[in-house]
Amino acid sequence: MTFGILRHSASPLMSDGYSRLYVRTVVLSLVLLVSMGSTAIASQGGVNEEASVDGTGVETVLHPGESSAGEVFEVTVGLNDESSNNVTVVSWITQVCINSGVCYPPETNSMIEHSSTEWRGTIVPEDTVTYVNWKIEIQWEDGNTTSVPETGFGWKVWSDCWYDNGTWGGSSTECQEEASGFIPGFAAPLVMASISMAALMIWRE
């Protein structure tokens, strides 16, 4: 007895309909994700952040209200009397993000002891700085290390001329006048436009 093999071929119409539905779903999902990401970033633009130093041995962290392209950015860490007698090294871990949308890897900078209770550190952000992130690390005589904050960066200071998610900000417009060519921050609108065009082309086929 010979058994035939039953073969099933999907209807071209059904296959085409399924493909169109799938493409539409993917396109809408991507557009939604891009839009949500853009909104989240834009809501924080230009807002400086500062970590709590309660219970860390740090009394004050003094810094400028803005960072400026090509200019010295100095931070002074003030310790209480008890901490200043036991500290061996104070480090300043910085991360500079620039107007093209790139954030450089964190760098560890050794702070200089300015007095018995004060430690100072300086960096010079590059020309297109958007903001500077940083945290403080303190090494003690007993070998332990305190990170302020424990995770992530605790401080963020925006520049005097920044570009973020399609928005310019800061007290200066110098970087806007110097900006030329394609800025990656414009990528989100272009991505959504490209996705939409691709969807229309597929829909018309």
Secondary-structure blueprint of this entry?
Blueprint (H helix, E strand, L loop, with lengths): L11 H31 L15 E5 L10 E7 L1 H4 L2 E12 L8 E4 L1 E2 L4 E6 L5 E12 L4 E4 L6 E4 L3 E3 L2 E3 L4 H5 L8 H18 L1
Antiparallel strand pairs: 1-2, 2-6, 3-4, 3-7, 5-6, 7-8, 7-9, 10-11
Helix pairs in contact: 1-4
The name of the CATH superfamily of the largest domain reads Immunoglobulins
CATH class of the largest domain: Mainly Beta
How widely separated are the two ends? Answer: 46 Å
Number of domains: 2
Percentage of residues in helical conformation: 25-40%
The tally of helices reads: 4
CATH topology of the largest domain: Immunoglobulin-like
Bulk shape: elongated
Going by helix content, strand content and strand pairing, the class is alpha+beta
What string gives the helices and strands in order? HEEHEEEEEEEEEHH
**Portion in beta strands:** 25-35%
Low-confidence stretches: 1-14, 26-43, 182-191, 198-205
Question: What's the CATH architecture name of the largest domain?
Answer: Sandwich
